[in-house]
Specification:
By secondary structure, the chain is mainly alpha-helical. 51% of the residues lie in helices and 0% in strands. The chain has one domain: 434 Repressor (Amino-terminal Domain), CATH 1.10.260. The longest helix is centred in the middle third of the chain and has 11 residues, at 41-51. The chain is globular, with a radius of gyration of 12 Å. It starts with a helix and ends in an 18-residue tail after the last helix.
């Protein structure tokens, strides 16, 4: 899971802007933002760089989530 949508909203940045900067379609970036699809690590680092945040700020911690068997 990622926090791309929340970080974009916090910074007042539109998904379309991010799509243009990444060279990806709006549909792909929207899928990332809605957690229907996860970006590769390379893309996640590009997103963090563009949004000027630490890559860890884009991730949801799984430390306290229940373990699945």
């Amino acid at each position: 899971m990622n926090r791309i949508k929340e970080v974009l909203e916090d910074k007042g940045i539109k998904q379309m802007w991010l799509a243009e900067k990444l060279g990806k379609s709006f549909s792909i970036v929207n899928a990332y933002a809605c957690n229907r699809r996860q970006p590769s690590l390379e893309v996640l680092y590009q997103v963090a760089n563009l949004l000027q945040v630490d890559v860890k700020d884009l991730l949801v911690s799984n430390v306290n989530s229940p373990k699945k068997n």
